[in-house]
Design a protein that fits this description.
globular
Length: 84
């Protein structure tokens, strides 16, 4: 299981704005190009572990500031699905 966790975290920690927009469309999460760029810039290289509640909460708070509370809530739901 740790192997899959590492793969998921690596993908999130290296995500691009284009990938965020693509995944947003797949999971019905509206993100503008500007929001996606800000989120990707924040996440990239931070070595965030979405399986760690503290790390995930910190990221969600930053996403709420950048993209709004509704988007952050949807991203959190997606993260929770990925961590099951």
């Amino acid at each position: 299981m740790k192997f899959l966790e590492n793969i998921i975290n690596m993908k999130i920690n290296g995500i691009t704005a284009s990938e965020l927009i693509k995944y947003g469309k797949q999971f019905d999460i509206h993100v503008t190009r500007e929001q996606a760029e800000k989120i990707a810039a924040y996440v990239r290289g931070k070595n965030i572990d979405i399986f760690n509640n503290r790390d995930r909460a910190k990221v969600i708070k930053e996403i709420a500031i950048v993209a709004g509370a509704d988007t952050a809530k949807k991203v959190n739901q997606l993260f929770l699905e990925l961590t099951k």
